[in-house]
Amino acid sequence: MGVRAGSLVGRVVGALVLAVVLLVVSTATAIWWTARQDSQPPSDAIVVLGSAQYNGVPSSIFEARLEHALELYADGVAPMVVTVGGKADGDMFTEAESGRAYLAEAGIPEESLLAVEEGVDTLESMRAVGVAFDERDWSSAVLVTDPWHAMRAERMAEDAGITADSSPTRQGPAVQTRTTQFRYILRETAAYLLYRATGESVAGAPGIG
Fold first, then answer.
1. Is 85 helix (H, G, I), strand (E, B) or coil?
2. CA 196 to CA 76: how far, in whole Å?
3. Where are the domains of the chain?
4. How many of the other CB atoms lie within 10 Å of CB of 66?
5. Distance (Å, whole) CA 99 – CA 200
6. pLDDT tier at 6 (50, 70, 90 boundaries)?
7. Average model confidence (pLDDT) across the chain
8. Centroid of chain to Cα 64
9. Which of 88, 104, 84, 103 minimizes the C-alpha distance to 55?
10. What is the pLDDT of residues 100-110, one digit of tens each?
11. How far is CA 167 from CA 4, 102, 194, in A?
12. Cα separations in angstroms, 23 against 34, 42, 147, 203
């Protein structure tokens, strides 16, 4: 009896371990697949996810996103570009403000720009963008972020009431080497599974929070 019970427990534990492994692998594969897509349907707004800025100057990761948003705006994907993101303690500028200034200097008219200066991570930012969309009766967005961040950003945007597609940037530090890509996929897999399990986000390196 004891041997049979032990064997049953072993099989159950083995099945649970296999289920977890399959969940992780399938999620990582979905993140990789989403990262390779580029969806640019006509939308109410292009939403640029924030990243680090230094005294009002976007970091290289943020700049790559902003440059891609410029291309989408020039292609007529949406009449508005929304930058989003708050600021860390001690910062003088928000990510959203820095992004808006960069795009304005690049030639996008002020009336076509909206800075949503809230959010210390993707979840907070998407919820703030959802409120801004509701206030303006907007419903659809093309999200601009790093490829590995796209699936989680889409999920959070959808949960905030936005019909979201993503057009990831193909430039910047997040896509430079296979090692970097593998590291981002692993971290995004953990972040995505945490969000789906708890409804919470996690702050961290660019593309993680």
1. coil
2. 33
3. 34-198
4. 24
5. 26
6. low
7. 87
8. 14
9. 88
10. 999 999 999 99
11. 54, 19, 24
12. 16, 33, 20, 22
Alpha-helical runs (H) found in the chain: 2-35, 60-74, 95-105, 122-136, 150-159, 178-198
Cα dihedral 203, 128, 52, 87 in deg (nearest 10): -90
Distance, C-alpha 195 to centroid of its chain: 12
Please name the residue that has the structure tokens 């349907």. Answer: 41
How many residues make up the chain in this entry?
209
Q: How many CB atoms lie within 10 A of CB 70?
A: 19
Q: State residue 5's pLDDT score.
A: 58
Q: How far is the C-alpha of 20 from the C-alpha of 195, rounded, in Å?
A: 16
Phi, psi of 128 (to 5 degrees): -65, -40
Q: What is the pLDDT of residue 207?
A: 42
| Fold classified for 34-198 | Rossmann fold (3.40.50)
Tell me whether residue 14 is exposed, middle or buried, using C-beta atoms within 10 angstroms of its C-beta: 0 to 12, 13 to 18, 19 or more.
exposed
Task: In whole angstroms, give the CA distance from residue 20 to residue 87.
Answer: 36
- Tell me which amino acid residue 200 is: E
Q: Which residue has the tokens 């599974």?
A: 193
Q: What is the pLDDT of residues 114-142, one digit of tens each?
A: 999 988 889 999 999 999 999 999 999 99
